[in-house]
Design brief:
- By secondary structure, the chain is α/β, with parallel strands linked by helices.
- It has two domains: 42 residues, no CATH class; 240 residues, TIM Barrel (Alpha-Beta Barrel).
- 33% of the residues lie in helices and 15% in strands.
- The protein contains ten helices and eleven strands.
- The strands form two sheets. It has an eight-stranded parallel beta sheet. It has a three-stranded antiparallel beta sheet with strand order 1-2-3, with no helix packed on it.
- Helix 7 links the parallel strand 8 and strand 9.
- Helix 4 runs parallel beside helix 6.
- The longest helix is centred in the middle third of the chain and has 24 residues.
- Bound molecules: zinc ion.
Length: 362
């Protein structure tokens, strides 16, 4: 299929792990991902879009034409609505599917597989006792049936011709500690790991961990300080992500993930060790206000990720629009991301026309 410049993709069979930046024509750069080489704009500009069941061709054309005219180069579409993907691609946009990976309240899973859900240190399951909010239904990443369900899902989606790539969200454990700005909202002080938010102590996790450490995690005196137990959980998510990545790559599709803002915060709050993930792009959600930080933090946080990744994977900094007061702050956020070494930005939420001008002008 012919795709308009500058989004034309060159699919070349290469098995490169290393990232190589090549200066191409103006406003173009390219990098080699695990199995393909994709030409991308010099500054990638993505946006998360909630899926709809809208199939009205004219309305979709207007929606994606407007995004393209505003400088957007790629869209992360929630749900598999083929019409949305085709309409986005027709306007020259990269169209990746945005998936909730381990947080799943799907009717099918709830009805048939209550044993797939994570269990906290108090023995409560996300199936009938979701923490914080009713939609927090976390699956256990160690469970073989969960892994095989997710692998099948990624295989099926990667094989669809209209889906350009896979974008994983909620690929982590439940927040054992919430970002500090949310403590008050939930009336919590989380200066330590509380048992009701600490996962997963299901039968599979306990027996699998016992095989490698000879300890039952439930009997640990200080689970939050046990490096074997902590590393075990990092590894459960990392190995899952890398299995899913291998499947996407077999189908010549790039795969990325939305992750917590820095490697340090991601490991501490949600046990996401994303520096070790074999992805093609990383989207750290550098949502400064959640961490009670100033906008200048966007640069520092981005730069920590870039440096810990050793530039192995392109970083696309996520910006949370509800906390961006005006176009000046947006400009500071984008400049911060790029100066911190990001290859681009991804926007969550609505923009004013003045803010769109800033995005377009970059
Ligand atoms: Zn488990």
């Amino acid at each position: 299929m012919e795709i308009k410049e500058p989004m034309k993709q060159k699919i070349i069979s290469l098995s490169l792990i290393l990232l190589t930046f090549l200066s191409c024509q103006k406003k173009q750069a390219s990098y080699s991902i695990k199995t393909t080489t994709i030409e991308v704009p010099e500054i990638e500009k993505w946006i998360w879009l909630h899926g709809t069941s809208d199939t009205n061709a004219a309305a979709l054309k207007t929606q994606f034409k407007t995004l393209a005219n505003n400088g957007i180069t790629g869209v992360l579409i929630g749900g598999d609505n083929e019409s949305m993907f085709r309409a986005a691609k027709a306007e020259g946009l990269q169209a990746h599917i945005w998936l909730w990976t381990l947080n799943r309240g799907d009717e099918y899973i709830m009805k048939n597989h209550s044993d797939w859900y994570s269990i906290n240190r108090n023995g409560e399951s996300c199936f009938d006792n979701p923490p914080y909010v009713s939609y927090y239904r976390w699956l256990c990443p160690t469970n073989k049936e969960v892994r095989s369900f997710l692998k099948d899902e990624i295989r099926r989606l990667s094989q669809k011709d209209y889906i350009d790539g896979i974008h994983l969200d909620y690929v982590r454990y439940c927040d054992v500690i919430l970002p500090i700005a949310l403590w008050e909202k939930y009336n919590l002080v989380q200066n330590r790991e509380l048992p009701e938010f600490d996962y997963c102590y299901c039968k599979t996790c306990r027996s699998t961990f016992q095989k490698v450490s000879s300890n039952d995690p439930l009997t640990l005196a200080e689970p939050a300080a046990d490096s074997n137990w902590i590393n075990f959980r990092y590894h459960q998510v990392t190995s899952l992500v890398n299995d899913l990545a291998a499947i996407a790559h077999q189908n010549q599709k790039p795969i990325s993930a939305a992750v917590f803002p820095t490697p340090t915060i991601a490991k501490k709050l949600v046990r996401q060790d994303w520096v070790n993930w074999n992805l093609d792009r990383i989207f750290p959600m550098v949502y400064h206000a959640f961490y009670e930080e100033e906008i200048t933090w966007v640069k520092n946080a981005t730069s920590e990720g870039v440096s810990k990744l050793k530039s192995r994977i392109p970083v696309i900094t996520g910006i949370y629009m509800p906390d961006i007061e005006n176009e000046t702050v947006l400009k500071q956020a984008i400049d911060g991301a790029l100066n911190g070494g990001a290859n681009g930005i991804s926007l969550f939420g609505k923009l004013t026309s003045k803010q769109w001008k800033v995005v377009k002008g970059k």
